[in-house]
Design a protein that fits this description.
This protein is α/β, with parallel strands linked by helices. The chain contains 17 helices and 18 strands. The strands form three sheets. The protein has a six-stranded parallel beta sheet with strand order 3-2-1-4-5-6, with helices on both faces. Strands 9-8-7-10-11-12 form a six-stranded parallel beta sheet, with helices on one face. It has a six-stranded mixed beta sheet with strand order 13-14-15-16-18-17, sandwiched between helices. It starts with 15 loop residues before the first strand and ends with a helix. The structure holds manganese (II) ion. The site of manganese (II) ion has 6 residues, from loops.
Amino acid sequence: MAPKRWGRWVYNCRIVRCLAVCHTEPVVRLLEAVLSPSAELAVLVESRALARKFESSELPVSVDEADRVDSYVKIGVHPMMPVLIEDNGRTGLRKILAAVRSAGGALIYVLGTSVADVLKAESLRADYPEVTTITLAELAGSSLLTELGRSVTRQRVQQYQRYMDDADRVLILTHNDPDPDAMASGLALRTVLRRTRQTAVIGCLAPVTRPENLRMVKLLDLKIETIAPDQLKHFDKIALVDVQPHYFQGLLPHVDLVIDHHPEQSGHNAVFQDIRPGYGSTATILTEHLRAVDMDISERTATAMLYAIKSDTLFFNRHANRADIEAFSYLYPLADASAIRKMEGAEITAERLDYLIKAWQHGRMMDHVFCSFLGEPPREDFIPYVADFYLQLEEVQWTVISGVVNDQFVVSVRNLGYTKNAGDFVRRWFNDTGSAGGHRTMAKAVVPLEAFQAKFGTCEGSRINQRMLELVLEFLHEAKEK
Ligand SMILES: [Mn+2]
């Protein structure tokens, strides 16, 4: 199934002429369907009866002996013309190969239909090293699997579309301080549900604060409403994107749909869910949903989704899989690249530079771990920003950046991914006193300052940082001993 909008994205390839030597009708039909109109296909068959089947089509089918040089000379085979030979296991393949080669053919493909054919063709390699073998399974395999996967997704999506259809007002709820993935997934889900701003509100309990995310809101004219907990009951259906029910600690009256890529947390009773922890972004999952039900994606939504995949995977530097790359290449021609450039430019601000300098002046580096305490920054986002930044430094394999925001001790942890798990580190030390979680390469913990002091007996900045460094080194040392 070729998506219609790939038109803008088709490579400007030259039309090649190629020849197929075939023995059965389905193989001719398959090659015709696959190759035209990108390639100009001619077919050589040995049986008149087979040729007659194509009398009414425009496909040039000639009848001749496949093992004679003359047959190929007549057609004008030359070294740059691909020649595909169907191996039906009966006719003398070697003789055919020899004839094609003598006529000047050099780009020769043997198309096998069974495993036995492949083995035989492989054994030809000694005499015919220029021959490439392909099987029908290889030709059809990956697209067939993609198609099957898509129909499973289609079933799922159609089910939740029907379920959400009769609601007057839908809330698409994200985590606090929504990031690009949360907002883009909100837009995408609204498209899947065929709803507007009025009938599906994208909301959160605490609004966007990070400068680059605010810039995204402004550039794409997004409307993300801040919802008070007592408003939740006014929505007929609630869908969560990029977050799971446990995050809201019992605040939600009901959850109808969850779409997320974070590690699955059990113990909720959402009606529908699609949680895929292996995916780099929730926008990737929603790209598959949109494709499965063949929805048009507006430029604004595609731009938001593409930016979401880029930013959640740090442009494929972190936790990305094939599906993310596939979604990226699908969305790319639909999105506005210049808008994305503007959003990315918003990362560096003067106030962030202040905290980078502060982190460097007060930080400690030991055993490839950079550890710094930022004091009391005005917003939480300075902490992960500094953590991401210093991971770029040569020598640095882990960053552990902490600070105090609204009487909460907040720590962001990053690593390069090939040592121990960052999520395990924060859970190891902070699960008992606050919230702690994350992936292998990035994690976060938030602990009431009092609880932190009670547990670690310290409150002064340089002592806090010293303590954090001890905790991470102890953790990494444990890992080595195992
Ligand atoms: Mn995400």
